[in-house]
Design brief:
Two copies of one chain form a homodimer. By secondary structure, chain A is mostly helical. Chain A is built from 13 helices and no strands. Chain A starts with 15 loop residues before the first helix and ends with a helix. At the A-B interface, helix 3, helix 10 and helix 12 of A face helix 10 and helix 12 of B. Chain A binds a DNA duplex through helix 4 and helix 5.
DNA sequence: AATAAAAACGAGCGCTCGCTCTATTAATCA
DNA sequence: TGATTAATAGAGCGAGCGCTCGTTTTTATT
C-alpha cells in the first residue's frame, strides 16, 4: 500500500522506477565506477576497454559461481566463458580474489548509501518503509552482486569477512535504532526491536537469495515490498487505523 | 474437530529437554545410523571403528569448512585435523562428496520427521508452535549439519541440490498448509499464508546460520522460540486474549 | 608509413588437489 | 600359535589450479 506522497522521501523517490532512474550503479556506469575505484589492481589504461572487459568478467563470474561456487570456478573456465584470454583477465585483475573484493566494495557502498537515505527520514514509520524499499530495490538491481557476496564471504580473508558481516549488522542496526526511536515516542508497541529489525533483514536477504522461490509464487517486487511492510506494521502493532492517523499528521 | 491434550502432541514432548531425551540422532548413535545408512560407500566392516572415525571426520569437516568452505578444505588438511591417514579416510568414504551427501541424508531425515510430527497435531496453532519448536530444537542439536548443508548445497550435483532445496520447500509447505487449514476455520486472520510460512522458515534458519548474532544479543533457545511464536501469532492477528480462549478449549 | 603504446594471447611453471595402491600393522579366530 | 581378515599408513599419480611472461596483434600518434 502506497501511503505517502513520493516526492518527500528522498531524491531517489519511493517507487522502483524512481529509484532505478537515479541509481548510479547500473549498466556501463557501474563498471566505469569499478574501474576508477580499483586503479591499483587494474593494469589496463583505457576505461572503455577495461569497463567492457570488467562487465564480461563479472557477468561470467556470477553465472559460473552461482552454479559451482567461486573457488570451484577456474580462471581457465572464466577465460572460456568471457572469451578473454588468461592474459586479458590479468590485465583487469591482480589476482582471482580481486573479483570478490570488488563485489564487496560495491555492495558495501550501495548499502551504506541506502542506510543513510533511510536514516534521513524524520518520521520513523516512513524511515522503516523507505529502508525496506531502498534495500529491496538496490538488491534487485544488483541481485547477482548481493547473492555472490552472501555466499562467497568465506572466500575472503578474515578482515574482509568482517567487513561483509558489518554490512549486515549495519542494516539491522539502522532498523533497530529507528524502531527504538519510534518506541520512545510511543509510536510503536513492540518489546524486542532487535528481533523485528533482524526479521526485516532476513526478509530482504531472502528476496535476493532465493528469487526462484518468489518467482514460483508469482510475487512481484512491489507486492513483496508491500507484504513486508504490512508485516512490520503488524509486528509493531500498528493497524490500518492508527496508520492513517499518522499519515494525516505528516502532510 | 477433535482437540488434543498436551501429552498427545508427540512422543518427543514440547520442551527442549524432552525433545533431546528422545532424539535418536546424537552422540554415538548418530554415527552408527550413518554407518548403517551408507554401507555402499563405506569399506570399513566394524561399526565401532567406523562410527568412531566418522565422528572425527564430521567434526573436523564442520570446523574446517565453516572457516574456508568445503571445496577449499583439502583431504590432506582433513587427514591432519582428524589424525586419520588418507587411507583411513577412504575406508569410510568412497569420495570427498560423500561427506556432503551424508549431511544431506541426515538433515533430510530429521526435517522430514519433524514435519510429520508437526502435521500430526490436530489443532492448527499448536501445530505451528510444535513445528517451530521441533525445527529449532533439531537444528540446535545438529547445528553444524544444518549450517553445512545450507552453505555447501552448491557443492552437490543438480539432483542433490534439488533434494536440498526441497527440504526447505517442504518446511514452508507444512507451515503454509497449517495456516490455510486455520484460515478455513476462520481461526487465523492473514491474507498471505505463504509469506508467513516463509518468514517462519527464515527465522528458523537464522537461528542455526548465525548463532553468533543471537549469542551477542543473549537470546536463549527458549526465548528465541517464544519470540518467534509470539511474532507468528501477531502475524495471524491472534492476541494473547484469543490465545487463552483457545488454550482453554484444549484442556 | 613509421613508430610507439596498449591490449590480447596462451604455453608453461610450480604447486596442490582428489584419489589409489601396496606394504605393514593390528585384530580375530581356529 | 599360525592363518586370515580388517585397518592403517603415506608415497605417488595424473589432472587441474592460479598465475606469469615472452610474444604477437591491435590501436593511437606522428
Amino acid at each position: 500500500m502506497g501511503l505517502v506522497s513520493s516526492q518527500d522521501h528522498s531524491f531517489l523517490g519511493s517507487t522502483f522506477d524512481d529509484y532505478r532512474a537515479n541509481f548510479p550503479y547500473q549498466g556501463d556506469q557501474l563498471f566505469r565506477v569499478l574501474f576508477e575505484r580499483n586503479q591499483d589492481r587494474i593494469k589496463s589504461k583505457k576505461i572503455d576497454i577495461a569497463a567492457n572487459n570488467l562487465q564480461k568478467i563479472f557477468e561470467s563470474t556470477f553465472t559460473l559461481s552461482a552454479k559451482m561456487g567461486f573457488h570451484e570456478m577456474s580462471l581457465r573456465g572464466l577465460s572460456k566463458d568471457t572469451g578473454i584470454s588468461m592474459g586479458g583477465l590479468y590485465s583487469c585483475l591482480s589476482k582471482k580474489e580481486d573479483i570478490a573484493l570488488m563485489v564487496l566494495d560495491i555492495v558495501e557502498l550501495v548499502t551504506t548509501e541506502n542506510n543513510q537515505l533511510a536514516r534521513a527520514e524524520a518520521n520513523e514509520l516512513i524511515s522503516l518503509e523507505m529502508g525496506i524499499k531502498y534495500h529491496l530495490y538496490a538488491s534487485t538491481l544488483l541481485q547477482p552482486w548481493f547473492f555472490f557476496l552472501y555466499f562467497e564471504t568465506r572466500s575472503l580473508n578474515p578482515e574482509n569477512q568482517q567487513r561483509s558481516k558489518n554490512i549486515e549488522m549495519n542494516i539491522i542496526a539502522m532498523f533497530e535504532e529507528t524502531i527504538k526511536r519510534g518506541l520512545n515516542k510511543t509510536q510503536f508497541d513492540v518489546h524486542n526491536p532487535y528481533f523485528v529489525a533482524h526479521i526485516i533483514l532476513l526478509a530482504i536477504q531472502d528476496w535476493y537469495l532465493k528469487p526462484w522461490k518468489n518467482k514460483q509464487e508469482d510475487l512481484s517486487l512491489e507486492t513483496y515490498s508491500d507484504y513486508l511492510f504490512i508485516m512490520v506494521k503488524k509486528l509493531l502493532r500498528l493497524d490500518e487505523g492508527s496508520l492513517s492517523i499518522m499519515q494525516k499528521n505528516l502532510s
